[in-house]
Amino acid sequence: MQGKKRLFIIGAHDFGREIESWLELTPSNQRDWYIAGYLDKDPDALENRQSDYEVVGDEDTFEFVSDDMVIMGITAPDLKELIYKKLQGKIQFFSYVAPSAIIAKFVSIGEGTVISPNSIIAVNAIMGKLVTVNCGSQIGHDVKVGDFSSIQSNVDIGGKSKLQNKVFVATGATIIPGRVINDNVMIGAGSVVVSHIKKSRTVFGIPAKKILLPNKEK
After folding, report:
1. Cis bond leading into 207, ω under 30°?
2. Among 37, 76, 143, 146, which residue is least crowded by beta carbons within 10 Å?
3. What phi-psi label fits residue 38: left (phi over 0), alpha (psi between -120 and 50 degrees) or beta?
4. Which pLDDT score is estimated for 26?
5. Does residue 78 contact residue 97 with C-beta atoms inside 8 Å?
């Protein structure tokens, strides 16, 4: 595709394959890029899965050219951070906003962030770098979401809440307005967060409470 940049999807499992479809929602006359394949350490990641593209290598060994770009098809915060640190300064991380997403005025969207279809980002929200916002989630006014965080489908984050770095919010969770969620927190699916959450915790339930994970939390 002469004159267009190559765009590689990092991760050929699950979310990465969803991104394949969403990228193609962008009208062709608005693209200065084309999908050139997947990067995944598992060369058989697409086996028995339908895709119009192939795994062409992995992020550690693939030989990029100067204007190549990558988009993050992985939602695990620790892995996103690891890959970013490996590729920082070597490649451009592509930020994507789906055509059907509603983005209010004065919203800041960081490097490599993915805003999926039917998401709503309200006024003065700040999205850090490599944030993932999955389908149908609503981010309230003046919310701040830190680097490498992932907001899964149909999450509702109330206005003025602050999510620090590497926060994972699972499908259908709700965070009431003004809550502070510290670094490395995982919020379970369907949970309702009514209080601030200290760092490095996993919480679940209505209201969300800390749960213990073997060999991780005591």
Report:
1. yes
2. 76
3. beta
4. 92
5. no
136-188 pLDDT tens trace = 999 999 999 999 999 999 999 999 999 999 999 999 999 999 999 999 999 99
Q: Please report where in the chains the tokens 């510290």 appear, as a residue.
A: 182
List the beta bridge partners of residue 211.
202
DSSP H/E element including 53: none
Strand order in the sheet with 96-97: 96-97, 114-115, 132-133, 150-151, 168-169, 186-187, 202-204, 209-211
Q: Pseudo-torsion of CA 87, 76, 139, 191, nearest 10°?
A: -170
Say what the pTM is.
0.94
58 CB burial (10 A radius; 0-12, 13-18, 19+): middle
